[in-house]
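W.,

You were right to be curious about this one. When I first looked at the sequence I had no strong expectations either way, so I just let the prediction run and decided to look at it fresh. Below is the sequence, 201 residues in total, followed by the output.
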Amino acid sequence: MSTPSPPGPCGNGSDLSRHECARFDDLFRASYQGLLAQALLVSGGRFALAQDAAQESLLRCWRRMHQAHLDPVVNWPAWLRRTVMRETLRLTKISATTEPLEEDAPERAAADFDAAAAVDLKDAYRRVCTYIAGLSERQREVLARCAIAGERLGDVAAEMGISEGTARTHLHRARQALHPVWVELKAMGVIDVSEGRHGNE
């Protein structure tokens, strides 16, 4: 699967500088496939939803780059991981139906991890997506935001309106539920074992 072209701002007729466009273009091409892969896993294998989340996150990145009145983002890859996880969770919550794992999702996303050679992606994607789809809404949110996006557990708990201890319990239970596919998750490089104790920007 090839990486799509960056969205509109740098298209024909743009009045933006080459430097601005090149900066975003490089980030887009370096980030898109990984963001799509992470969104695919967290959504439980829903490819169209994952595409929407990845593309929306990159559009927000473009807008954020040009909001000069805000503090500069130091770490764009981390900012994008956090943003795509939040967008994936939002879309998953508002989706009217529970879509099954698309039969060709593993094959279509097979190029999305640099660790592709480390696992049998067809079976691994199917197994991991199935297990993640079985998590409760809160377990999935804490796992996605802390163990994938790297957000701090206390910050996530505060935004969810729960105690840090409760959030840690959700994270622990999610990890227990995913134990049968933990090797695959680690091989894919999407799980952070530090419980989100590092910064995002």
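Here's what jumped out at me. DSSP finds nine helices and no strands in the chain. And, maybe more interesting for your project: Residues 14-188 form one domain.

Coffee later to discuss?

I.
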